[in-house]
Design goal:
- The complex is a heterodimer of chains A (310) and B (373).
- With 310 residues, chain A is an alpha/beta fold.
- Chain A has two domains: 215 residues, P-loop containing nucleotide triphosphate hydrolases (Rossmann fold), CATH 3.40.50; 82 residues, Alpha-Beta Plaits, CATH 3.30.70.
- Chain A is 38% helix and 27% strand.
- In chain A, strand 6, helix 6 and strand 7 form a beta-alpha-beta unit.
- In chain A, helix 3 crosses helix 4 and helix 4 packs across helix 5.
- The longest helix of chain A is centred in the middle third of the chain and has 16 residues.
- Chain B has two domains: 217 residues, no CATH class; 113 residues, no CATH class.
- Chain B has a two-stranded antiparallel ribbon with strand order 1-2.
- In chain B, 36% of the residues are buried.
- The chains are: A alpha/beta (310), B mainly alpha (373).
- Chains A and B meet through helix 1, helix 2 and helix 3 of A and helix 1, helix 2 and helix 6 of B.
- Chain A: It is found in: Cell membrane.
- Chain A: This is ABC-type multidrug transport system, ATPase component.
Amino acid sequence: MTNGYGGIIASGIRRSFGSVPAVRNIDFEAPPGEVTALIGPNGSGKTTLLLILASLLAPDAGTLSVGGFDPATNAAAVRRKVGWMPDTLGVWESLKAREILTTVGALYGLSSTAVSHRAAELLAEVSLSEYADSPAGVLSRGQQQRLSLARALIHDPDVLLLDEPASGLDPGSRVALRTMLRRLAGEGKTIVVSSHVLSELDEIADRAVFVNRGESVKSQTLDEAGTQLRRYCIQAEPMGALADALASHGVVFEERGDSRRVEYQVLLSSTEQAAWLLRTLILADVVVTAFAPAGGALEETYMSLDTERQ
Amino acid sequence: MSTDTVEGSRTHSLGYVAGVRTVFGLEMKQRLRGRAWYIMMAVWFLVIGLVFLLATLTTAAMDSAGPFLFDLVVGFVLFFGLLVAPGLSANAINGDRTGGTLAILQVTLLRPGQILWGKWLASWVASLGFLALSSPFIFWALALGGVNPLEAIVSLAVLALELGLVCALGVGISALAGRPLFSIVTTYMMVALLGLGTLIAFGLSMSLVMEEDVQVTQSFYDYPREAIESGRMLTEEDLECLTNQVIMPVWHTERTAWLLAANPFVIVADAVPYDRDSLQSEPDSLGNTYRTPGVMESISAQVRLAQAGPDYEVTCEEAQFFGPGSRDIEKEPLPIWPLGLVLQGGLAAAVLWAGRRRLVTPVRRLARGTRIA
């Protein structure tokens, strides 16, 4: 029976394939109405975790609740609530885009009138209306990806599991995806996005779970990520004046040469501190030409985990 | 509970038949839109046509060309059908798994049985297309006369059933095996096991069912000594039936005939209600009352002899060269083909059942080297 919680709670999830552990110990929570990013390097167990959440794979150990149900005991209830977009684009190449959506809709038990209406709506939403009657095999990778997203949404799921949804999308489609996911989250749906394009997740996600080598290593909200220690890049004309100003205020900086121009990186603990430093530099007549966070908030966490690991 | 009402309004359910129908439709659309099926059909038509044409030419002089040709076509259609059906069915599940589309089906409300039913029915219908394509030849042979239309209908029905059984094997094996190539080869091996393996097993088991030193009454025709010594031309009228008792080994093939029952050729051959009485019907121009039995009819006759087991008393009637000859095999109480269908059906059901277990999600044990998606 449903436990009343519409989101996802997983704790102590373990799964190995033969002797190879894919997921060692993952705790994962995705509340309804938010976009949760699942972040980790290749082979860290993201796809395996999503397969477990999608009720396709049984965990060796751990407790799990997806949309209020346990996939092990009530897979059908979970499937009614979950839309899953795999990282491998399985498309029936000879089927038309519209047919793929209506077929899958029928397999969710939707009536044919409801499903054809819904298919047209979704095709418009992922800008594939003009390809509705093209065989899926002739669509480009990005178009197939959008079709796959529409397919995952056909039964209006409460929980959406997206495995690398943005890879292969052009910038316009990425923006559209972002808008769509934010809207769906606004409607109260639980959304999980796995990716390693971190800059993008910064703008979509409300929270992030970092996994590495099959273990969840950190879980934080974007707000938390924003208040953590962050690196900022500063450039000025000339750089010498900047160096003096930083030194006089006791700010430790590091010269970075990997950019086309020399820049200084400083570690700042908060946005307030950043504002203070910028104001101070300008009042000291340093000609600041660039002052920006070195990377996204999530990238910062990701990199800090990376250094912890080494 | 408030969530229950929300649940209730959103609970879609998928009927069992509706799910099977959708999977079937999905499969058929893909087959009909691909080119492979049509190319295979064209090759099939050419090959069967060629065989039929050659057979027509060679049997043109025969009196009973109709039944002979009919038997030949049925035999060849079965042979080619056994070659085609594994190719049409044995990549049904693992082909989708490789293509990443199986998981998309599994994540819907479909149950494993529905996937198997849909895919099996689709591959069966696809292989029935080949049977339909060969029916002109069957009816042509029928038109030449001498074949009871009931024989034709039964033959087609049993051929269709055989194709369905091989497709079921193929679909089941494709769910079990990781790679399409492996499952197709395995299905061919299974078909070879049924088609040839049963014969080999039957042959090898002969030594196991041999009983030595059995007293048997033998009858045979020979010319009596006085006729030979008379020095005149001997005619058929001089033949005399001699009966004596001999001690000889006998083979209890009735114990091993069931091995042959699992052979697809035996099933098709044995199921047809041959007009065996016509073998001794009207005397032909040479005065012989003998009709050449077709290939399939001979198979059926041989199998029924094997079923009957050793003949402890060969009567004079049975010993005749011409005419009714041999034993009255119609007397054998049970035709063997139902047993064959049960054996093959049992095998197919076992393979499908094992395959179904591989489709159950959430997956606990995953075969080595396979991915869910």
